[in-house]
Amino acid sequence: MSFSLKSTMESVSEVEAAADKLAEEAGLDEDERFRLAMAVREAAVNAVLHGNEYDPRKQISVSLENTGASLVISIADQGKGLDPKTLPDPLAPENLLRGTGRGIFLIRSFMDEVHFRQLHPGTELTLIKHLAPAEGKT
Amino acid sequence: MALTIASREVDGVTVLDLSGRITLGEGSVQLRDAIRDLISKGSKNNLLNLGDVNYIDSSGLGELVSAYTTSKNQGASLKLLKLTKKVHDLLQLTKLYTVFDIYDDEASAIASYK
Hints:
- The complex is a heterodimer.
- In chain A, 34% of the residues lie in helices and 25% in strands.
- Chain A contains three helices and five strands.
- Chain A has helices at 9-25, 30-51, 103-110; strands spanning 2-6, 59-66, 70-76, 113-118, 123-130.
- Chain B is α/β, with parallel strands linked by helices.
- Chain B has one domain (4-111): STAS domain (Transcription Regulator spoIIAA), CATH 3.30.750.24.
- Chain B has helices at residues 28-40, 58-73, 85-93, 106-111, and strands at 4-10, 13-22, 45-56, 77-81, 102-103.
- In chain B, helix 1 runs parallel beside helix 2 (58-73).
- Chain A binds chain B through residues 9, 12, 34, 38, 41-42, 45, 49, 90-91, 96-103, 105-106, 109, and chain B through 23-25, 55, 57-59, 61-63, 65-66, 68-69, 86, 90, 93-96, 98-99.
């Protein structure tokens, strides 16, 4: 399923609901559904807020797929781009009391794989949740 | 569900009973306003009851941290009460569990201010 949405908080809720439905239909338990839906919500917030900066001329592109082996969710914005290497570590003592900067950390914590792709302009995040244990994953 | 906040006084402590979600656009602003209101009224001993908060996103976590630092900077104390499992797990994951004073029962939380 693929669709494009306006850069609004309503779109974030729509993407979150779609991810939760995907997870439910894939048979994930409640905790896994929660984690996946939250990761997708955080990615959508990043796209709408930090990527497109609520610009009504820009959209977010979303795709959700159950490949049988994995749930694959991609969210792309049309913003100025995000370099994940520049993100501060929210667990570092000097960053613990920051009011922002935990979204990507939560996404990485809750998903099996997270990929960033620069679109020039924009950033695409691909979030992957394996439905069977990945080889070598502990 | 949007966030609702009810305020009550217990032995000199202002308890805010929060219910719903604390997320960007669905509770962060209400929480921020509630804390500012307490600070402006000179309330020094404040307790957030999160027993009915079952969802916090990164924005909500940031708002909790901001509430904590704002309170501290103004000479007030902000503690947390009754975390749901999901919120508890998030605070542990983000190491914020080490930042806040957190209580499971209200009597102990109230007593901690004395």
